[in-house]
Specification:
By secondary structure, the protein is an alpha+beta fold. The chain is 34% helix and 36% strand.
Length: 418
């Protein structure tokens, strides 16, 4: 019996010690504060950019197609060949168009013969009319026949010119100096000539002038202007960044995923390349960073330091009650709580002073991929909480005790340096 009682006392004692340990650990943790990482407000240069995926294309590219239909009987170039303006490219079968020219020539000759006959008869009718040998009506008939013959000659000549034009279009020549970048047809295939659709035979492009065609989101394109300098990173040349200039901005956007949650509207922006590597090819993938604004000597802060929170509301009712030695009215208290609940989130940072995190509302300016410009709210050199993200975005509150631990951040920097 005594042993059982003693055993219970020992278990109870162990339990008490465990509770005491938990309490001491909790108090120690509270005293230690929430572990955070910090960054300092610095001053320097800040560059704001707008980015997007791009394709490399020539500034000038011509789609070569037939203006008349016919079978391709000869190709004068291969893909990759250099051509000059006026060089032979394609020969379509001309036989049908030669026959049409011959027929038009025959029709013209026949019309000319009829014209000469009508002219002679009209001249004779005029003399006979002058001698009162024929009536006015007969003269008018001769005149009308002559004029119709003249009109028929003009029609025949126009038909001949058209036939000759069609025949000339069976031979296709290069309209410019350049490179044959694509060949879509082979000898023996049909080329369909049309005024409304293009049946492309080949592409000829000037590869001495290249550009990056980049899709920019509708929210970012408003910051882009003609003449903005840009950086172009071509996937095929990962170690080199090329310079460019914005030369064209589309006035209308292209929407994908219309009517869905994934609906996106982009605007095509063309960036002329100032520098061009030797083996650059049309269609290569790239990424373009358009520099929309650049500022020197501004206060800045890493972008992860800024978060959205409701503004901290000072308890003005409690302060007034302390001064007036009266209890705050319950209605006024509810109104203040309602105002605090309805307040819109603002951009804030958590400034660390003597182990306490203070929520500070800030006004930001331009941003780069990694930093915000800080226009007001902070001073250079201030310690600002930068992480961890979970704590900074949700858990950390104004007035919380914190412990700064930048050891992990320093380790990462050393590894990057190595």
């Amino acid at each position: 019996m005594a042993k059982s009682k003693k055993k219970k006392l020992i278990i109870f004692g162990i339990f008490i010690l465990f509770v005491v340990f938990i309490v001491i650990a909790t108090l120690a943790r509270k005293k230690e504060g929430i572990k955070v990482q910090t960054e300092k407000v610095s001053r320097g240069r800040l560059v704001s950019t707008v980015s997007g995926p791009a394709k490399i294309e020539p500034e000038i590219e011509v789609k070569i197609s037939a203006k008349v239909s016919g079978q391709i009987i000869k190709l004068g170039v291969n893909e990759g060949d250099s051509v000059s303006a006026g060089d032979f490219l394609v020969q379509l079968d001309p036989e049908e168009y030669k026959a049409s020219v011959e027929q038009s020539q025959s029709n013209r000759d026949y019309a000319v013969a009829g014209y000469n006959k009508a002219k002679n008869e009209y001249e004779r009718a005029k003399k006979l009319h002058a001698d009162n040998l024929i009536s006015d009506a007969e003269l008018e008939i001769a005149k009308s026949t002559f004029e119709q013959a003249a009109s028929t000659v003009e029609q025949a000549k126009a038909s001949l010119r058209q036939s000759q034009d069609y025949l000339s279009k069976t031979t296709i020549k290069s309209p410019m100096d350049g490179i044959v970048t694509r060949l879509d047809k082979k000898e023996g295939e049909m080329a369909m000539g049309s005024q409304f659709t293009l049946d492309v035979i080949m592409l000829v492009a000037d590869l001495t002038k290249m550009q990056a065609e980049v899709e920019i989101d509708e929210n970012d394109v408003i910051h882009v202007s003609l003449g903005d300098t840009s950086s172009i990173l071509v996937d095929a040349f990962p170690d080199t960044t090329f310079k460019g200039i914005v030369t064209e901005i589309a006035h209308s956007g292209t929407t994908t995923g219309s009517g869905t949650q994934e609906e996106v509207t982009n605007f095509l922006v063309k960036v002329g390349m100032i520098q061009k590597p030797k083996n650059l090819r049309p269609g290569m993938s790239a990424t373009v960073d358009v520099i929309t604004e650049s500022l020197n000597d501004v206060m800045k802060l890493p972008i992860q330091c800024v978060t959205m929170r409701k503004p901290v509301q000072k308890d003005t009712l409690a302060a007034r009650a302390e001064n007036e030695k009266t209890a705050p009215d319950s209605t006024e208290k509810k109104d203040q709580e309602k105002q605090m609940d309805e307040a819109e989130p603002v951009k804030v940072v958590f400034q660390v002073k003597e182990g306490i995190a203070h929520q500070v509302e800030v006004k930001t300016g331009i941003s780069s991929d990694t930093e915000w410009e800080i226009k007001s709210g902070l001073e250079e050199g201030s310690d600002i909480v930068s992480g961890p993200y979970r704590i900074l975005s949700k858990q950390l509150k104004d007035g919380d005790a914190v412990t700064v631990d930048n050891s992990m951040k320093q380790k990462v920097r050393e590894e990057e340096t190595d």
